[in-house]
Design goal:
alpha+beta; Glutamine Phosphoribosylpyrophosphate, subunit 1, domain 1; 29% helix
Length: 474
């Protein structure tokens, strides 16, 4: 039975110009606590570069010197890629040994500088900076309470609501981590956030573990990040995942944790393993590369095809294509060249511009596909626009047949937890069956991964799969 979120949602219908041909995550977060005299900004820059795939609209860094004056948090942020926002001069101006960073892709808020993070605020007891990934589904109700109390300005994002609520609680508590605990009891949704005071770094994950957050270490430093790949990018090693509902507090004395919000129910976002995370990351004990490979193998078992070659759509379909090849014995080939130097091209206001973006990003290697029956693997079909183009490109290059295999089930429902799966009216699978979609995209056959195959991907890890089955965990 379909169950919708029980709290008032801040999720909004996407405007036509923001409806995408790809699925995107909302953002990535990174935080580091190093020793006195160290330069945290460079580490944060490197960590954000490793998380760039999670958000390409804006980037920001906040730092503090734990040995400096109380309450001194320095923040820089702007629109664009990490390397566009931060050059040597910008990094040189961020002096401090503790800090947080953020990369953003907007889903519920506009793509404007005002919504870039970190959110840095001053209040009567000091200051804090916050970076946030996900979506607080009852943020609208909390915001109205703040306005009635006269404790906040009109806010444009759930991240600001979260920051204002922490400040409101902080003035009543002895420590910022206690304020964070009281706020978490009010908030509902899927989120991971890092809060920095001038001398503390606090990481927290939603009680269901929908959004990922990991803890790492390096000699003289502790790290919090959306993915383990970012820990490795700064020379650190993964300690473990932050537990769902856990609050991790890092100070000069080391690490302590608060598990009062930890429970038995968990619902980890399955799309981290299908698409979002980097393939070299490990999330909740699951190697992302291996999960995608196993998804391809499952497709090979349930939906084989009479074909000559298997090809994956770069980059998201490549690993699943290798798994399909391994299972079926059909040779895996690289059938596309991807232009790695295309920048922020995923927001396209018109259909024609979206088509041009695909042509700029991908080209077919004709010698690999000419005269061949091709099995084409990708992670998803959202509206069908991109897949239709890619199939047309393969046929123009001489492919005899194109059999499409998708390493996720059909998208049928919107996501309320910080992923831009659009409304059902924009999801091709919500309006058409597989045979109709197959004809629409111009394929010879079409099959999807089955929901029951998730167990083969990630074992017994409890999953949020609401975008596929409509059962929302919160």
């Amino acid at each position: 039975m379909q169950r919708t979120p029980t709290s008032a949602s801040v999720w909004k219908e996407p405007s036509e110009e923001l409806l995408q041909h790809e699925i995107h995550e909302e953002c990535g977060v990174f935080g580091i606590y190093t020793g006195p005299g160290c330069f945290a900004a460079q580490d944060i820059f490197n960590g954000l570069m490793a998380l760039q795939h999670r958000g390409q609209e804006s980037a920001g860094i906040s730092v503090s010197d734990t040995e400096g004056s109380r309450g001194n948090i320095c923040t820089r942020k702007g629109m664009g890629l990490v390397s566009e926002v931060f050059g040597p001069a910008e990094l040189a101006g961020l002096r401090g040994n503790i800090g947080v960073g953020h990369v953003r892709y907007s889903t519920t808020g506009a793509s404007v500088p005002e919504n870039a993070q970190p959110i840095a605020m001053n209040y009567m007891k000091g200051s804090l900076a916050l970076v946030h990934n996900g979506n607080i589904i009852n943020a609208e109700a909390v915001k109205q309470e703040q306005l009635l109390r006269g404790q906040a300005h009109y806010t444009t994002s759930d991240s600001e609501v979260l920051a204002y609520e922490i400040i409101s609680e902080r003035v009543k508590t002895h420590a910022v981590e206690e304020a964070v605990f009281h706020v978490l009891k009010k908030m509902r949704g899927g989120y991971a956030c890092i809060v920095m005071s001038p001398r503390k770094l606090i990481g927290v994950r939603d009680p269901l573990g929908i959004k990922p957050l990991v803890l790492g270490e390096r000699e003289g430093a502790y790290i919090l990040a959306s993915e383990s790949a970012a820990v490795q990018a700064v020379g650190g090693r993964l300690i473990r995942d932050v537990r769902p509902g856990e609050i991790v507090v890092i100070t000069a004395d080391g690490i302590r944790t608060d598990t009062r919000m930890c429970g038995l129910q968990q619902a980890h976002c399955v799309f981290e393993y299908i698409y979002f995370a980097r393939s070299d990351s490990v999330i909740d004990g699951i190697e992302v590369h291996d999960a995608r490979f196993r998804a391809g193998q499952a497709l090979g078992k349930s939906a084989p095809a009479e074909a000559d070659i298997v090809a994956g759509v770069p980059d998201s379909g490549l690993i699943a294509a290798e798994g399909f090849s391994r299972e079926t014995g059909i040779p895996f080939v690289l059938a596309f060249h991807k232009n790695s130097y295309i920048g922020r091209s995923f927001i396209k206001p018109t259909e024609e511009e979206r088509k041009l973006a695909v042509w700029r990003k991908l080209s077919v290697l004709k010698s690999a596909v000419a005269g061949k029956r091709v099995v084409l693997i990708d992670d998803s079909i959202v509206r069908g626009t991109t897949m239709r183009q890619i199939i047309a490109m393969l046929r123009e290059a001489g492919a005899r047949e194109v059999h499409v295999r998708i390493s996720s089930p059909p998208f049928l429902h919107p996501c309320f937890y910080g992923t831009d799966v659009p409304s059902s009216r924009q999801l091709i699978a919500a309006e058409h069956n597989s045979e109709e979609i197959c004809r629409d995209i111009g394929a010879d056959s079409l099959s999807y991964l089955k929901v029951e195959d998730f167990k083969g991907m990630v074992g017994d890890l409890p999953l949020c799969r609401a975008c596929f089955d409509g059962i929302y965990p919160v």
